[in-house]
Design goal:
CATH topology of the largest domain: Jelly Rolls
Radius of gyration: 24 Å
Order of helices and strands: EEEHEEEEEEEEEEEEEEE
Number of strands: 18
Helix content: under 10%
CATH architecture of the largest domain: Sandwich
Distance between the termini: 42 Å
């Protein structure tokens, strides 16, 4: 998902030459840490977990906010998240902090996870390399892993600032020694989102998004996912992915190997298919579902619990 002018976050890649967005960061008045995937065990007053950022964070003028349109389908992500940014600063060192939020229909902006990158380490974490003021750099901010379903009618939001204090130590913006008292400088920081410098959010997708998606290539391999929910009563869903059009069978067997259901027998197109299975008239116990596509088959276990 790409950052766009006007605070938009979308699947469309930016076009044209668009001016960067900018914000000021004053280390003497940092963006406060409110909720998220980190906590400070020495400061019980710092809120933890999913917190609404509207009042304490997003009402300030020292951050940039990018939101998707309202989702028309559930969006499921699971795994590592990162944000690729094209940035510049008028200082030799500063930070870029990212928060990922779930925006509810009533406007609540609930933080889920966050990350930060110190710019003197924009090339690596082992060698310091201070910035040249005004020069554009590409840097990746890694967020903590997340498993989350963004529900239909919700939105995703990315907040970008230069602090998340006290979760992360302040950058004084002076390029001096780390973690020692020193003079502070106010930084003006820039985020680019044009055709040549496309800042973006990278999500580990588990299902299709609730946004209009570009046409993509066929999947590279045949996959059969674990049914969900499992155990189940009375119904569950089975998801399979095909790299090409195939004649497919999907059958259910009991623990003795006896076929009890034939759910699919026919040609299926390349892509992901979701099949609902209702365990009517089946006793509680362990069952197996087997998919055969061409000469390949995969089998998994499911549990019916009455």
């Amino acid at each position: 998902m790409y950052l766009q002018a006007g605070g938009l976050l979308s699947l469309a890649k930016p076009t044209g030459n668009v001016a960067p967005d900018s914000f000021r960061y004053d280390p003497r008045n940092p963006s406060p840490a409110v909720g998220g995937a980190r906590f400070n065990p020495f400061d019980p007053a710092t809120p933890i977990g999913p917190q609404d950022l509207r009042q304490q964070v997003e009402s300030r003028n020292d951050l940039l906010i990018y939101s998707t349109p309202v989702l028309d389908k559930d969006l499921v992500i699971t795994g590592a998240i990162k944000v690729d940014l094209f940035i510049a600063s008028n200082r030799r060192d500063t930070d870029f902090a990212v928060r990922l939020c779930d925006v509810y229909p009533d406007g609540r902006s609930m933080i889920l996870t966050q990350g930060i990158r110190r710019m003197r380490f924009h090339n690596s974490y082992t060698n310091e390399d201070l910035l040249t003021p005004g020069q554009v750099y590409q840097v990746t901010v890694e967020l903590q892993n997340l498993a989350m379903t963004f529900l239909q009618s919700h939105r995703l939001r990315v907040d970008i600032s230069s602090s998340d204090y006290p979760h992360f130590n302040l950058n004084l913006n002076n390029g001096g020694a780390l973690y020692v008292v020193g003079d502070t400088l106010v930084a003006t920081n820039y985020v680019y989102h044009d055709a040549m410098r496309s800042s973006r959010l990278l999500l580990p997708m588990a299902t299709t998004t609730g946004l209009q998606e570009p046409i993509s290539a066929s999947p590279a391999s045949f996959r059969l996912e674990q049914n969900f929910p499992n155990p189940f009563n009375p119904a569950t869903t089975i998801r399979l992915t095909l790299p090409q059009r195939e004649y497919v069978t999907l059958k259910i067997f009991d623990a003795l190997g006896k076929e009890v259901r034939n759910l699919v027998s026919g040609d299926l197109a390349a892509g992901t298919h979701t099949i609902k299975f209702e365990a009517k008239n089946l006793a509680s116990g362990i069952y197996f579902y087997r998919v055969q596509a061409g000469q390949t088959f995969i089998q998994r276990k499911m549990i019916v619990m009455r």
